[in-house]
Amino acid sequence: MAPALINANPVVYEKKERPVRSRPGDGNFDEYATELIDQLEIFDHIRDIKDPEHPYSLEELKVITEDAIEVDDKRSYVRVTFTPTVEHCSMATVIGLCLRVKLMRSLPSRFKVAPGTHATEDAVNKQLNDKERVAAALENPNLVDMVDECLTPSYE
Amino acid sequence: MTLLEEESLKLTEVQRLEGHTDRVWGLAWNPATGADGVPAVLASCSGDKTIRIWQQRSPSSTSFDCKAVLEDTHSRTVRSCAWSPSGKQLATASFDATTAIWEQNGSDFECVSTLEGHENEVKSVSWNASGSLLATCSRDKCVWIWEVLPGNEYDCVSVLQGHTQDVKMVQWHPTVDVLFSCSYDNTIKVWADDGDSDDWHCVQTLGESNSGHSSTVWALSFNSTGDKMVTCSDDLTIKVWDVDIISLQSGDGNASWRHVCTMSGYHDRTIFSVHWSKEGIIATGAADDAIRLFAQSQDHSVDGALYKLLLKKEKAHDMDINSVQWSSTGDRLLASASDDGTIKIWKLESF
């Protein structure tokens, strides 16, 4: 028997429309301009990450929204506040790890990434922001497999 | 110290050491080098599972070369390293749950002993002043004390339980056999034994209720006389503590440590490393990629601040700074290690 799901029946929301952004080759694309990293770009990197428990994306489950992303390009700082489908979800650490790994791989190395949940006094947040614990977790092959599986759709 | 106050200080990068292929976590200067015509030796350890040994080209040179790469022993990140007081052994603590002891044999280093016992990641290792005891700590919440026996034998004499979380660092007092540990549980614990028995126990806990830190305590360091200790934390502060050194040295391991002051408002990201130089300068390395130097203030009149910021080196590295270490000889050389995979050697200069 498969282990019981933490949230067996999550609410699934519609995906947001994806606005077209200027890309190399477009008439008005200035390849010499420094491209600022904004909320939408961060959202694009993480919207398709798959929930560890469901075949839906974090966007579809509203675990992440564009509004819950704070970016300070000048200070190279990104904070993503995510909302697990159920409060105190034990999957929160895995989701946070996925967010952190995806952004570490997608953004220039100068960026500091801080994923966290809404629950203010939360052990999950402390763990996710302890880079030594994150480094040790990412040396655990089982956890890395789990993270990679969630991240696969976000590279497509 | 008066001199320092009057001087204009500058931290100049003298060399960038490249070779590690992942973040560099820890650094240790060999205490038996860097003086009396012996070129300074620095060890570094990394997420690439190796330890590198760097040696000064000549005693007065500021150029360092990589002399050895210690590999194929640890199977995971090497988190920290420490030289024995004689400089003959190097201990390395790894996420693979082991601590390795290395000795130099000609130009090669060989692993002469592997200390097993912790359940998971070993985070830190420290030798006592005489080199007869070694301490290690781990995410398993325990601190182990090992006795150093002849023939590269290490005997566990005590397993100290008291922290409720991951223990980040262990450090022996520079003159007395009293051990300090700091943790993810936000506290610093002081451990001592009852004279000659091996009955080690916690004699003091410095926590939030006694002016301690409100988040993970990452590191601690002592001044040269051992009557003061500085701690740094994820709560963005550094704190100075002191003790009655006479009673501590007369064998009273229970002598209690007192909060002296908190330096807040200087850091805006986690402070991972703090190190007190022999000369009295406190260096910090933080997640904002900067190095800061502090020293005791001479004029108490202005705002009553006991310590003041001497300088802040912004963008000292491209990424987080995990370790800052002053060379043991007082020549004002500072080494820093970073997530950017490099080590930098700095010279503190006055003009």
TrEMBL record, chain A:
This is MIP18 family-like domain-containing protein. Residues 41-109 form the MIP18 family-like domain. Pfam families: FeS_assembly_P. Gene3D superfamilies: 6.10.250.1280, Fe-S cluster assembly (FSCA). Signal peptide: none annotated. Keywords: Chromosome partition. Coiled coil: none annotated. PANTHER family: CYTOSOLIC IRON-SULFUR ASSEMBLY COMPONENT 2B, CYTOSOLIC IRON-SULFUR ASSEMBLY COMPONENT 2B-RELATED. GO terms for biological process: chromosome segregation; protein maturation. Belongs to the MIP18 family.
TrEMBL record, chain B:
Gene3D superfamilies: YVTN repeat-like/Quinoprotein amine dehydrogenase (2.130.10.10). It comes from the Eukaryota. WD repeats lie at residues 17-64, 71-103, 115-148, 160-191, 210-244, 314-351. One of its GO terms (cellular component) is cytosolic [4Fe-4S] assembly targeting complex. Keywords: Repeat, WD repeat. The keyword DNA damage does not apply. Belongs to the WD repeat CIA1 family. Essential component of the cytosolic iron-sulfur (Fe/S) protein assembly machinery. Required for the maturation of extramitochondrial Fe/S proteins. This is Probable cytosolic iron-sulfur protein assembly protein CIAO1 homolog.
